[in-house]
């Protein structure tokens, strides 16, 4: 019984570490997407601005 308890404790710990790692990966991916969106937004604003200035 003690062995089973130890195994389930280790499994739980592993699961928590896995979840934490996934949360960090998700946060990093989200940050990259936000940075990319900001770059694209700037590019679009510049594109529209140039189009308006050039009268196209």
Explain what the structure shows.
With 56 residues, this protein is mainly α. The protein has one domain (1-56). The chain has one helix and no strands. It has one helix spanning 2-54. It is rod-shaped and about 80 Å long. The protein starts with a helix and ends with a helix. The mean pLDDT is 92.
Descriptive labels:
coiled coil, 56 residues, mainly alpha, 1 helix, single chain
Task: Give the uncertain stretches in residue-range form.
Answer: none
Please outline the major beta sheet.
none
The DSSP helix count reads: 1
Content-based structural category: mainly alpha
Gyration radius, rounded: 24 Å
- Taken together, the total number of domains comes to 1
Helix content: over 70%
Alpha-carbon distance between the two ends: 77 Å
SSE pattern, N- to C-terminal: H
Overall pLDDT, averaged? 92
